[in-house]
Task: structure prediction
Amino acid sequence: MRTVEVTLPAEVRGYPVYIGRGSLAELGRIAVEHGFPRRVAVITDEAVAGLYGRVALESLRREGFAPELLVIPPGEGSKNLDTVRNLYDELIRREFDRGCGICALGSRGAPARTPPSVGT
Result:
């Protein structure tokens, strides 16, 4: 697996991007290396969940994480504040708090700060 370090302006912290076939299976190990919280919400859409959700959850569980999958509908129609509100409501319902982690699986197209990424 190859690692590329993304360098950003001084006011924003850089982050590594992991690239390689099967690298998603290393998500748990990489999350441990970066001190990610043990309870984690994995947020993705239906299409990505069907393709990669199982691999991501298994990798996290193998390293002692307690991941929970939150799935939204695919497409541009879900990229709105109603979806964000629904995700917050679900996180609250599941009793996630500020000590928990959030992993966006397959995110793109919106500026966000995310944990170190694992490319597929």
Observations:
- The chain has a mean pLDDT of 88.
- The two ends are 11 Å apart (CA to CA).
- Strands lie at 2-6, 15-19, 39-45, 66-72, 101-104, 117-118.
